[in-house]
Amino acid sequence: MKVLIWGAGAMGGTIGACLARAGREITFVDRDLDHVRVLGETGITVEGIEDFRVAAPAHTPDTIKGQFPVIFLCVKAQHTAQATRSLAPHLAPSGSVVSVQNGLNERVIADIVGQERTIGCFVNFGADYLEPGVVHFAGRGAVVVGELDGRVTPRVQDLHRTLQDFEPNAALTDNIGGYLWGKLAYGAMLFATALGNESIADSLAHPAHRDLYIGLGREVLGVAGASGIRPESFDGFDPHAFLPNAPVALSEQSVEDMVAFNRRSAKTHSGIWRDLAVRKRKTEADAFLGPIVEIGKQVNVPTPLTAELIELIRDIEDGRRDQTSENLSVLAAIQRRGTDR
Predict the structure, then answer these.
(1) CB atoms within 10 A of CB 238
(2) What is the pLDDT of residues 3-17, one digit of tens each?
(3) Nearest 5°: phi and psi at 270?
(4) pTM here?
């Protein structure tokens, strides 16, 4: 399968490098000129649970030529529309765009290239962009692919086999929306951990904020349930543990399982935390969390925790608030006010 990787950062760089090493025909596109230059000169280097270097052609969006049957879109959620419009001329007439991203970006992609040319993908492996030409593959995690309408088609079966060259346990599903909404709930918790400087595992394990994380999960899955979505489980995240009337013991066990999963990874902090603390740039808060609030209004499910979480992240991005665990107390106060009503 000839694959164009649009966005050669943490996710795209790691997947593309592993597929190229397996003999797949991979081409990278990235807008970082230094990154593209190093990729062209020495190839892409992967460090972490696997250490290797592999060569593959690399271009910027304005220099890439030709059309491709499969394009993996691996950019930040807020750049989805712009990137999809840029890649559209390079998508073969019968080709497909695979959203290897965080959030509900398939909706945006489908609006531009058509739903019939869009495939959903869920990933939860750990990776970071370190420097031009170098990515860190920190830990394995779930990889799932599926057609948006749930059909099992020859093209998605081919894609599944391709992804198994990256993650041998990659799965093919008829409910990709369920995985994407599960990642929204888990991702909301990761955004909360990024309000401070503790690791993902230490933050989730902190007893003072356990109820807050559970509350975030329940809020997001409340919107999913009202929207007719059946969330799926992965890597310690059990959607049944975050239903409105789930036993406390079940909820706490799922959080403990997520703690255990994250302790096994060399990626101690989320990409959200790195955006705020290291790269000093905007996060995916609006593009990732915003649709939860938007859809919540449509289905009459309040989302006060998610809405406040977005505001707290914006405050840190804009320098109005320090990145400290005290921010979790602000969010917890919103939760208490809702409980006291």
Answers:
(1) 21
(2) 999 999 999 999 999
(3) -75, 165
(4) 0.95
